[in-house]
Amino acid sequence: MSGPTENGGSGLVDSLNHHVDEHTALLHRTFHNSDGQPFYKDERPWVRWPSRFGYLTWQTLTSNPVNFLLVFVPLGIVFGAIHFNPTVVFILNFLAIIPLASLLSFATEELSVKLGQTLGGLMNATFGNAVELIVSIVALKNGEIRIVQASMLGSVLSNILLVLGCCFLAGGIKHREQSFNSTVASTMSSLMAVSTASLIIPATLYAAMGTSNSKDTKDDNILVLSHGTAIILLILYGLYLVFQLKTHADLFDEESGDNDAEGEQHEGQILSPWAAGVALVLVTVMVAVCAEYLVDSIDSIVETAHISRTFIGLILLPIVGNAAEHVTAVVVAMKNKMDLAIGVAIGSSMQIALLVTPFLVVLGWIIDQPMTLHFEIFETVVFFLAVLVTNYLISDGKSNYLEGAMLLGMYIIIALAFYVYPDDPDAKSLGAVWATISQR
């Protein structure tokens, strides 16, 4: 009895294998020409170019798990264009910007590989935080200094507390204890401490001048201090690039090795410089459109959901803008590549603090807008405490899930504080600002 059964089972397996082989051959014939080459490598241009476009598009869309949310991009734009319910428009565009941020990060990495590390670092700071940068530049042109400051501060807090906390927690659950290059982390945290001082000093000076000086005099003094501080911070960031890429590159070798291992299939293997550049332009335009509808619907969200503009600006928008960094950092942390995770989380925060924010101050100087580094006292103290806690936790070069829980707990406490933090009654609404921009 066993013999026929075994023969029958063997015949069934052979039949299944033959069936699978037929399907494999069919798929091979479907995506390959008669010579066995993929269609995107075909010698015939009318076959090669459409196939290559489809291949590159597919590789780009599958570069990150969050890209399935791209279905919300057309929905958010259409519902925003027909002036649908503002709450629905806000949610759709909120979800739409997450995959767009991911694609922006992917295209930036592809382009930076071809153009070199130095220019790639500058591009990561610019395009990696494109959502905040687009909103901030437009708001700055219209004199909305508080919106710019909230966006920058929220982005830093999101990276050093939420992203890094998720990294430590996710990695710590899978690995008992993880280690990373403490020298690199210490260098980054020291630069973050300097950026913290650049916010504390203007706030302290403003308070120290007291009532003996007129408001205009104090504002002028703070503006001069901010312009000088911004230039120094930009110089420090330039020196950090030289330190990282030239004079002390050996300190970053381990992190670079992790980057190469993680991005082996992406770096220089998918998009050409021209394709990456076109992708950057297209995605940036879509981010700007979705951001317009998102910000335009904030007023209704504030009125219906009773959420303050401060909470939206410092908590919700930075989470959307840094979605790509969130996913990347957590994934590499679970793979025990903590140097790369630290580089993504703290490195992004450092670029915001030392490059993007000072750049906006200088830009305001050029276009005659009084953008300063004078933040509200409460916001400055929150920023200082966040950097202080982060520096303590990474100083030993080791991490675990408890430290991740601490960072997440700190972020939730800050989020609750900003949730009840009152809005400035004299500030213009974000929707009014964006409506003015749209009319222009």
Backbone CA Rg: 25 Å
Mean pLDDT: 75
* Span between termini: 86 Å
Structural class, by secondary structure, is mainly alpha
Please trace the helix and strand order, writing H or E for each element: HHHHHHHEHHHHHHHHHEHH
Low-confidence stretches: 1-9, 19-30, 255-268, 425-440
User: Helix tally?
Assistant: 18
Oligomer kind: single chain
The count of β-strands is 2
Proportion in β-strands: under 5%
Give the secondary structure arrangement, pairings included:
Elements: H1 2-31, H2 45-61, H3 72-81, H4 86-115, H5 117-127, H6 130-141, H7 145-174, E1 178-179, H8 182-208, H9 215-247, H10 253-262, H11 273-296, H12 298-305, H13 309-321, H14 323-334, H15 338-366, H16 377-394, E2 398-399, H17 401-420, H18 430-439
Antiparallel strand pairs: 1-2
Helix pairs in contact: 3-4, 3-11, 4-5, 4-11, 6-7, 6-11, 7-13, 7-14, 7-15, 7-16, 7-17, 8-9, 8-15, 8-16, 9-15, 10-15, 13-17, 14-15, 16-17
Describe the overall structure.
The protein starts with a helix and ends with a helix. It is mostly helical. The model is unreliable at 1-9, 19-30, 255-268 and 425-440 (pLDDT under 50). It is built from 18 helices and two strands. Strands 1-2 form a two-stranded antiparallel sheet. It has helices at 2-31, 45-61, 72-81, 86-115, 117-127, 130-141, 145-174, 182-208, 215-247, 253-262, 273-296, 298-305, 309-321, 323-334, 338-366, 377-394, 401-420, 430-439, and strands at residues 178-179, 398-399.
